[in-house]
Write a structure and sequence with these properties.
alpha/beta; nine-stranded mixed sheet; two-stranded antiparallel sheet; 38% helix; 15% strand
């Protein structure tokens, strides 16, 4: 009896292993269900976005930068949004005002009127080391409301910056959504955040806009692809907005871009600041390029076929 039990146990475990392997193979071979193309990405690619308005050539996140980018036939802006002390949403990518203005302290500790009085061109230097935009009338931080009003035909990639408390995060999401609704701009907005909870929260109240994957989700997708089990990766995101490389890992391999396209995950890259890289990425299937040099974007568009 003991011998029979051992044989039965061994056979049972073997059968479980076979069934498990078959289940894995069937799941692996099954075609994943892809997202449909969002209206945000429906126009002819490539899209070229000016990062913070074009931070290499004008003071970032100011009307100076955004006006300049528009003159270079840019498709959109990639910006961060922050919450002020009086719950206004401003275009600003850092938590500290010291980063790009002559102010100091946390954004959340200052009212909008206080922030509006700061010089956002104070630290900007041109290629000659000069500071030509100090005290310029347009070197002020804009609100999201102003940005949506001034540039009604421009697409926006909005990055939600994490706040100090959950309540502030929820207020930021609600305020951003209120402004999107006010301007009826859902389909020209792409939302992303390093904080997955922020995206999860705003998605509950805004199902119309497009969404980008978080860093962790993109890394998970890349690992699945790299291990040859890309079909097992699922996502609700419409796009990957990737760095050129991260911790020594390059994300620009043509096969990886092809895989993203086959999965209907729109491939996008930021930090694209030279013409050769623009050409290579678009040639291999990249859809969105985010650059600090809107002047290069215009040159690329004039020469790309």
């Amino acid at each position: 009896m003991s011998k029979f039990n051992k044989l039965f146990k061994r056979s049972f475990l073997g059968l479980v292993g076979v069934i498990g392997s078959m289940f894995f193979i069937l799941k692996y071979k099954a075609k994943p269900e892809n997202q449909s193309t969002h209206d945000f990405h429906a126009q002819t690619s490539p899209y070229i976005f000016a990062n913070r308005g074009g931070s290499a050539v004008k003071p970032e996140n100011t009307k100076l930068a955004f006006d300049n980018a528009v003159t270079h036939n840019i498709d959109g802006f990639a910006v961060g949004v922050n919450l002020t002390k009086d719950n206004e949403v401003i275009i600003y990518n850092n938590s500290d005002l010291d980063a790009t203005t002559n102010g100091s302290g946390k954004v959340i500790a200052h009212t909008l009127s206080e922030i509006k009085r700061l010089d956002a061109g104070y630290y900007f230097e041109d290629i000659n080391g000069q500071t030509p935009y100090r005290k310029h009338k347009d070197a002020t931080i804009l609100t999201l409301d102003e940005l949506l009003s001034y540039y009604p035909n421009v697409k926006l990639c909005i990055s939600l910056i994490s706040q100090q408390t959950q309540q502030q995060n929820e207020i930021l999401c609600q305020k951003v959504n209120d402004l999107i609704e006010k301007h009826q701009s859902h389909f020209r907005i792409l939302i992303q955040s390093e904080n997955a909870d922020l995206v999860h929260y705003i998605k509950k109240i805004n199902e119309k806009s497009a969404y980008a994957a978080s860093t962790n989700e993109m890394l998970k997708g890349f690992i699945n692809y790299y291990l040859g089990i890309g079909d097992l990766f699922t996502t609700q995101a419409n796009t990957f907005l990737l760095p050129i490389e991260y911790k020594g890992i390059k994300f620009t391999a043509p096969r990886f871009i092809h895989w993203l396209n086959t999965r209907n995950i729109v491939p996008g890259y930021y930090g694209v600041n030279n013409l050769d890289l623009m050409n290579d990425l678009v040639y291999h299937g990249a859809h969105t390029l985010i650059t600090d040099r809107p002047d290069l974007a215009e040159r690329f568009k004039l020469t790309y076929h």
